[in-house]
Amino acid sequence: MFDSPRRNHPSIIIERLAGVFAFLFVFGFSFLKDHGPDIFRLSFYRALIYNAQFYNDKIIYALIALLLFCLWYLFISVRYWKKTTFHIEDTDFVYEKKTLFNSASRLPIKNIAVVNVERNFFERLIGTAKVKIDLNSSRTASATDFKFVLKYGEAVQLKETLMQIKQSVVGSEADDTDKSDRTTVAAFSNKQAFVTKLLSFPILQTLFAVFMVFVLPRFETSDGNSDGNMWYWLLFAVIGYVGSLIPGTLNLCNYVVEKSDNMIYISCGLINKRNYVFETEKINAVIINQPILARFFSLVSIDLAVVGLGNEKNETTHLSLMVNKNRAKEILSLCAPDFRCTEKLRRCHPLALVSPVVRSVVLGLAALFLKNIYTNYLQIALIVFAVSMLAAFCQYRIYTFAADDEILTYSTGIFNKKTYFFKFGDIQNIFIRTNVLYKNLSLGRLGFSILGASSVRDHKTGLFRFDDFDALSEKVTDHKDNLFFKKLNK
After folding, report:
1. What does the pLDDT look like over 268-281, one tens digit per residue?
2. Is residue 357 located within the same domain as residue 329?
């Protein structure tokens, strides 16, 4: 079916023009915002017509420029649709684009890491879907390599065709795209989707908003006036959170995780439908998330760092929504049993408190400069110092590290605790960061990188002794000859 060149569905023209529509909307909203309630008065439109006649030439030139811009973007979109094709030739995927700049790509299908099918609200209305193909590439680990818009049935068939060819090339004994071979690992309710987003509450931004609205105005300013506009901070925080909670919940509704012998299938979304398919061997890291609110209920969620999964829309491969720790262990044992560290996590060295304490003192002293604004600036400085010290102590308690013969794990995060698990063979670069003080004490922070999206690529542990890291470096280099280990003295 895909052995001859195929174009995208014509609806891709409208989707590409979404940027133009967004520009016109922002321009119109900005215009109306500047005039406020005047837009509901007849005198406003009379003045608008008069000004249009007075500045006749300028308005005509502006409208012509806007029209030419829209026509040019329409021309580019139509040409993109007409001159972009793809097809399958034997075991290769061929992609050609002949727009302003010609480009052609031929890649072995066996190098495809992930094939996803996604449907936004507009695509569901017209019966189309977006196929997203990601490769085993570090250069494009943070972006999708190829995207096509097809009829929904054709999109699903393209995904299954690519995965069938991939499995046949690598010599799989069974067709893992057959739904009869799948077993359901976890099916999460819409209530769990809501709880997951609710417990991922942005606590840091909330504390800042509360401080600005309820604490800061309590201190009398030097001129005796308080800024009543501080309440807008709280309003914006509430609107922003609700604005992210609703679409975030809808994107996690109907979340189902399935597994075959060596493949994982994830589907989710109530309005924007998404499907992920990837091999278990493409998992480069397992992340256990435990936001501060989730800790009160002993709930965790599981994320995966998958080789090739694009991240241009902050996509995250959730292996599990918020569940209790025992259920999380069951899901991990089924989908990623190799990511398990037998060593006990160790807390970082007590001297790790030095830098945060110094930072707290600096912040407290910096707050003293508020004396030109607030008469009670000393109390504000003490609050800043106390909060900074509390954050430093929490950071010390949370930073942990451990490594056995196969797995490296560490934890970080104050408000959103994350525990990472890595295989030594997936670590690309490893080094120690230290300074003059810590170097003399044989202390440093382990830094390393993995192949993955930008949000999970670079890592840094807490403060530990060089001896722990030296033993780890030997284990890493045993897995990968091309990796190196060095100490950066900073």
Report:
1. 888 888 887 788 88
2. no
